[in-house]
Structure formats: C-alpha cells, structure tokens
Amino acid sequence: MKKFTRCATGGLLSLLFAVATALPAAAQGPAAGTGALTGTVLDSASRQPVAYATVVLLPPAPNEKPITGVAADDQGKFSFTKLAAGPFRLRASYVGYGTHTRAVVVDTGPLDVGALRLRATAQALGEAVIIGSKPVVEVRPDRLVYNAEQDVSNAGGTAQDVLRKAPLLAVDGDGNVTMRGSANFKVLVNNKPSPTLARNLAEALKSIPAEQIQSVEVITTPPAKYDGEGTAGIINIVLKKGTKQGANGRLGLSGGNRNNNFNSALNFRQGKINFTSSANAGTWYSPGASEIYRLGYSAAGTDTLRRNGTNYSRGGWTYGTVGLDYDPAEHHSITLASSINYYSGKGIRDLFNRYDSPLPAANQLFSRATTEVFNGLNVEGTATYTRTFAQARKEWSVLGQYALNTGTFGYDYDQFQGSSVLLSSAEASYRERSRGRTPGQEVTLQTDYTQPLGEQSKLEVGLKGIFRSTGSVATVDTLRTNYGPALAKDPRRSTDFSYRQDVQAAYGIYSFGVGKKLSASLGSRLERTSVNADFRTTNSQFAPSYFTVLPNGFAQYKLNEASSMRAAYSRRITRPAIDFLNPFRDASAPGFVSFGNPFLSPELTDSYELSYNTTVKITTLNAALSVRHTGNAIESVNLLSDTLGVVETTYRNVAANTFYQFNVFASLKPNPKWDLSLGPDVQYVVRRSPSLQADQRGFTASLNLNTSYRLPKEYTVQAFAYGSLRTIDIQGYGPANLYYSFGGKKTFWNKKADVALNIASPFNGRWPYRSTLSTPAFDQRSTFYAYQRSFRLSLAYRFGQEQQGKQRKSINNDDTKGGGSKQGG
C-alpha cells in the first residue's frame, strides 16, 4: 500500500509540474490592444454563479473559430484583457447547461458585459427545442450539487430528509450521516460553520426546514482555502436568500406521524440594502427497539449477555436567522448575519438484561426504566467586509465570527433486580441520576486576498485564526435502596474537564490555464494547533502544540465542449473533538462503559481522485476513481474490562485504513417531463490494526435513485430510494441500509402555493440495522430497529418577487473530527 501511495503522489505531482512548466508557452490570444471585457456567468433559474464555466471570444458570425478563451473563477467571474477594438461575440458554456452567445463591441477601455445566464441542458425534438428545469443533480468540476428545491418530496421535511437524498451521502435510522461510507466530514451552511451542526448534527438537522434549503454541495477534494479537516470531504448546505428587487416571503405548515413544523421567511431588497430572515419551529417523534447478544471468552469460561428493549424520544426545536447586506459604495460590501437555534428533548428507554456467567455469583437478571433529557442552545454572529477593485477578479475580504454553543444532558433510571418486567418506582432495588453540561464558545478571524495574474491565472492567499474553548462537567448520583432513601454523589464517576484549542492557518493557491483546454491549481495550507486541557477531577493537565503542512492540487483537461477529465490530490487533517477526548466514563448502559481519550493524536489522510464528466444529449455523467489512505486512524475500540461481563469502548490511534472507491452519478431526462438521477458506488475497504489483531477487508456498495415526473395541471410525482450493503469496520461490520419514499405535489394560485403528500417506507414499518463485533475476547451481534414508515402533509405559500441569491464571503471552520451524529467543536 505504501508503494502505491508513493507512486500515486509522484505521478500527480509530475503531471502538475509538467503543466506548470508549460505555462510560459501558452500565450495564445487576439491581437494586442487596450480593450477589456469582464462579466459573470450565472444559472438562469437560481441566479447563482456557474463556477468554472468556459467563456470564449469569437469573431462576428458566421466565423465560429474561437479567438481566445478563459475559464470563469469559482464565483463565475471572467475577464479578457489586451483586446483590439472591434465587434466580437462572447459564448459561455458549461457541462449540464446550454450555451449563451452575446454580441459585444470592444472599445479602447474596459467594458462590463454583466451576466451571461445559462439554462439547464436543452433537448432538441425535431425543429423544436424544449428547455428543461434545473436538474436535480448537477455535476461540477470540484463537487456534486443536489438541487433540493427541485425535489418535491422534500416539502414539509427537514435538512435530515434532504441530506438523505444527496449523492454520496447516507442517513441511518438514528439520523447519523455518512459521506462515502465515512463519518469523518464537515458540514457547512452557506460556506460557513454552524454551531448548531457542530454540537450535534443528528439533532441539529431536524431544526432546518427543507423549504429553506436551495441545494447541497458534496465536495470530495476541497482546495487549500478550506480548513484541513474532514477526510471524506465537505457537505455545504446552501440556503435560499434574498430577492432581485422588492420583497418576497414564504409560509409553510407541515404535519405527520413523525414530525410537525412551521416555517417562514421574509426577504427584501431596496437599493443598496438586502435583508433576509426566517423563523421556524417544530416537533419530532422517534420510536425504536434494540437487541444485543454477546459471548465473552475469559479464563473462567464463556459468559453470555442478552439484552433487548424499546425506546422512543420526542422533542421540539426553534430556529431563526437574520441577515443584512449593505453596499455603501462601488467595490465595497458589508454583510451581517446571525442565527439562533434551541432544541430540547426527552427519551424513554425500557430494557431487559440477562447475564449468565460461569461464576454463578456474577449472574445478573434485571429490568430497567430510563428517562433521558437533553437540550442545546447555539447562537452565532458573523460580520464580513469585502473590497473589490476595478481589475476583474481582484478581491480582499475580512471576516469575523463569534459563536456560543452550550448544552445539557442527563438521565434517571430505576433498576429492578431479579425481575424480567418493570415494576413501580417504589420497588426499585437501585437508582441512578446523572446531569451534565457542555459549555462552549468560539471566536474566528479570517482574511482572504485574490490577485489575478493575467487572463487565466490568479493567486489566492489568506490567514485565519480559530480560538475555541469547551468542556464537560458531569455528576452521577447513585442510590441503593437498602442503604437509605437519599441519592449520594459518586465522586469516582464525576468529571470536570475544560478544553481549549487554538488553530492558526495560512494558505496559498496558484491557479492557471495552459491554452484553451488545460487548467490547474497548486496550493498548500500551513496550520498550527495548540491545545490546553485541564482535568480538574484528577488535577492533571496537558498542552501539546504542532504544525501541519497540507498540500493539494488539481489538473483539469477539457476534452471538448461537453466533456472533461480531472485529477486531484489533497492531504487533510483530523483533530479529535470533545466527544473523542472527554474522559467521562459513561456507565449508564448495563454491560458497557464508554469514555474518551484525551491523549489522541491527529490523523492525516492522503486522497487521490481521477474523475470524468460529460454531457451526452439528455445525460450528464460523472465517474470517479478515488483512493483515501490514513496511516494513524482514530478508531472506536471495544475491549473487555477488568469487570467480568463488561465491555469498554474508547478511541485510539490504532489503524491504517485505505478506501478504494469507484462511483458514478448520472442525471438524465428521458422526456421533457421526466427527470431521473442515479448513482451506484462501490468500495473496497482495507482496515489493519496489529495492536487489535485486526485485518478487515472487503467490498461494500450503495445505490441512490431519484426520479420525478410532471403531470398536467401542475401535478408532480416523485420517488426516491437508497440502499447499501454492510460496511467494513475495524472490529466487525456495520449495518446495511434501505430507505425509500414517494411524494406528490399540486401547485395552484398562479404557482404561489403548493400542497404536498409524502410517504416513506410504506411496505416495511421498520428497518433492522444489524452490526457485529468480533475480538479475541468476545463476539457480539447488535440490532437497532428504526421505525421508518411515515407520512407528511404540507402546505406552502409564497409571495413577492423571485429569489436572487447573493454569493457571500463566509467562514469555514471545518477542523475537528466528530462522529456521524456529533460533529464536534
């Protein structure tokens, strides 16, 4: 594997070096002059920039031979300089879109041609040309984009429902998200971090209404301007914003057997001011059941644990946002944005536990009734100043953010020794109560500068500092009823832990083009991390610091107007978050103890990707081969404790993981009213850990399918399905997955209102998520039954002008490792 890694690195670096050395020879262009053209390429439906679109300069018709061409930047901006005066034509194109041609007259000075708007790929039928709506899934050079607003089955849902349908993503029955089979990724909202998502992703996703989401971007090889965290990549949730002029808004109401919500938005633009706001609230309900069967092997003999139970949880949330854009003068822009989210919930868990030991004195038989409580508050405020210049694509910005994120958690349970059924609370033989809190705050400062270096080249540099403090304070009170009626604090199981993490970073990216078909980028990021942890319960501290260099680059070759190939390399870091570091020993589950490891080291991952993009008539296709290798991976480790029949779970740097992946995503339009997208994904996984005596390897695969059809009289029907095989874990196998849904929508009142009905998993009420653990000391089978059958009826009303998105500079704090449900930070 090491040999392959070196070869792949060398091959890619050689390719990029060859591209760089070829740059001086690429001086193709029109006759020199003093004229200049600038403009922006936009999506005609969403008015969002079309990043990396191709723009060519043509002579007057009928001559179709290009004079010169450039690639737009990631904001859709392009420029031509040193042009001779005279008439020309500009033509913009991009994979998945039609072309747009505009006649222009170049003078001796600069000319801003404004926006060139591209529509979704056209389908020609005889002499007629029918323009389809924006595709549900778009393929861009550096990301896959799921346009959630085009999917009718999202009506009345939440961000959790939306992410379930995005390419390369999966959501299990507990709401845990994985990307390309990995829980190590980062989620951003409008290209900036969200404390709501950082604290507890599974809960926070329930707080963002689907109607507020415009698209989900899946970025597998992020460039150096993003923080180095998230080895699987980045998920960026783009929310709807603003108006072109005037005011607009939305009111929505949804009800069903699993969730209910109210969502609203009010936006207006007047002159130099653009105001956006939203207010949302909802409730949710989630039932489930579980089973565990474990065989333990010790010197005393074989012991057996059987445990089963039922559970349900319910809760509510509120979520609100306010944003203000102000352009006081030409080339100057100020943006203020804030959000607040509060959620709380309660869970009831009933279980039956039987443990049979070769030592009769250790046998256990009991039932337990547990009540869990939790809540979280996340508040953030961001301010941005952006300075543009007369020179196209030149830009400087300064950003600052303050975030408060705090939460509480706890449980109470009554245990009934020797009973296989629950009894009254007064008959409990043992009781336990725990309460804890996780305070936290974060300050971020960032500045970025972009300097064009000719028509096809630019340099991007930036500095960033993140100053984060968090911690965990928890107590456990116990009561053995035969010793008295009062609960007493157990000091051995309490924790008082504070944690501070500061990250300073600098990056540089050089992007350039060679001729009309080849473009490339070379970049690197230097990050310094300093940590200060204080364990007040044990009176111990540690304060490590380290530097990390994270190079990356890509080369893209345009085969023709509809096809391209792209090779990319990136190195990324994973810093353990509070959930991985917190030493608090959670012994609330019988037979299990879990705790963090404050001495974890960060992990480094090298990613290599080769992709092919094309549009053939009605089909847009992306096929990618990728390899991800992590040499010191942080893994969840399960070991038998010194207490007979108890398994301890913690985290250690114990594995070398390699993922070989081939995925395809296709979006097609069999006829003008039918949209279809599908994406098979195949992985070969190798996980090795000599210290755990583990060598796990094997194939896994998944398939994502989404289709919709527009019927007469403004009716639309839609169906979605996702299925995956079991995953390969370091000590066993993770569960297979299946989820499917059907939806229908009727639009009326001159397209201002909708009513939608969505049904999920109607043919199977629940799905068994089965996983296994196998170690020299024990074997275990676990099953979690997630109840997925649901229905939801939604009403929505829109008023005012069409929406106009404004691309905002933003902060991306994607630098700590968390699980699929807890993103850390």
From TrEMBL:
In terms of superkingdom, the source organism counts as: Bacteria
Gene Ontology cellular component?
Answer: cell outer membrane
Membrane-spanning parts = none
Could you list the residue ranges forming a coiled coil in this record? none
Which residues constitute the signal peptide according to the record? 1-27
Q: Start and end of every Outer membrane protein beta-barrel domain?
A: 387-797
Q: Is the Signal keyword given for this protein?
A: yes
Recorded GO MF terms: carbohydrate binding
Which part of the chain is the TonB-dependent receptor plug domain? 145-233
Q: Does the keyword Signal apply?
A: yes
Which residue intervals make up region (Disordered)?
802-825
Q: Where in the cell is it found?
A: Cell outer membrane
Keywords (alphabetical) are:
Cell outer membrane, Membrane, Receptor, Signal
Q: What is its main location?
A: membrane
Q: What is this protein called?
A: TonB-dependent receptor
Q: Which organism is it from?
A: Hymenobacter nivis
